[in-house]
Amino acid sequence: METMDYYEILQIGRNASGAEIKKAYRKLAIQYHPDKNPGDKEAEEKFKYINEAYEILSNDEKRQIYDRYGKEGLERRGGGFHASSMDDIMDIFNSMFGGGFGGGFGGSSQRQRDPSAKYPLDFEIELRLEFNEAVFGTKKTIPVTYKTPCSACGGTGADKGQMETCPTCGGQGQVVMRQGFMTFAQECPHCHGTGQRAARACTQCRGKGYATEKQTVTIDIPAGVDTGNRLRAQGYGNEDRYGRRGDLYITFFVEEDEHFIREGNDIYIEVPIFFTQCVLGQTITIPSLRGELELNLKPGTRDREQFVFNGEGVADVHSGHKGRLIAQIKMILPHKLTAEQKEQLLTLQQSFGIESHPYKNTFEQAFKRVKSWFSKE
11-45: buried (b, 16+ CB within 10 Å) or exposed (e) per residue? Predict the structure, then answer.
């Protein structure tokens, strides 16, 4: 494993995009995470190398050095783990394991939740964005309601803060369950591992242990975010009894557009064209994300044919590299014809001769073969 290539570790090609690198990392990190493989030293070792590979390949500068000089080149230039890389990895684990992941990766992972707390420090909200806001980025000021410890009970949920031994676990914080000859210990469901419970519920918070406060948060949303992406606003989460604030996680939901359809960083647009324009060809103007583009329709353009404009799509939220605009033709046929139009079309059809009846040549042999089947009876 020591000499293994970083691309091999993540099971990707050397030309993999940033999105492909992150996707591969997520999959392998979940598979080999220590919490899913307790006591498995091999999985623990693989997990370490998976993180190392992602830290290098997700950084454009380090990846270029690695591609040219290998791991030795990184070591000569002091290419170790940095806080920004660890924050990125931490964000991935928060999205995979629901927020409060305590794996030792910088930022909020250093906070240990108070076992007596009635609520987690981190929480998540959904923010809806207009299509253009997600594509170009924007600044949003959003209202947030967060939790603070009840001033009357100090966050315990107990009247005057008076606690008593939990009768379920006898103050141990754990309950023992037996199944056959096996014995299991798990966190007490009533005191949540604290070994204590409220003697009487606090009259001010009714035993909840918290009050709520409101504030507004202004965030800069980078260009290229998409539905399902998350942004962490550090220090805007719930507050514990020591005055520490957790993190607010904002998950985006992007509205659809009337004309543009987004798929990753690519944008699709349907271009309705009258059948005569497909036959004769024509240069037309179509809308793009950043203005107008000229689309050159050659004679004989087909229905559903696609025309690709590189660099006219959405900017990747990590690398800034722009995707493609893909214009797909939708050929429009006339719904009604006047007598004069029918006559003109018939004249045109006849002028092409046999070419205007392609099915005759196509099916000629088929007709002969079918007739021979019956003549043999």
Answer: ebeeebbbeebbebbeebbeebbeeeeeeeeebee
For 137-161, the pLDDT digits (tens) are 999 999 999 999 999 988 888 888 8
Residue 103: band (very low, low, confident or very high) from pLDDT cuts 50, 70, 90: very low
pLDDT score at 279 = 94
One domain for residues 194 and 213: no
CATH number at residue 193: 2.10.230.10
Q: Report how many domains make up the chain.
A: 5
- Average predicted confidence (pLDDT) for the chain: 83
Question: Is the pLDDT at 77 greater than 80, yes or no?
Answer: no
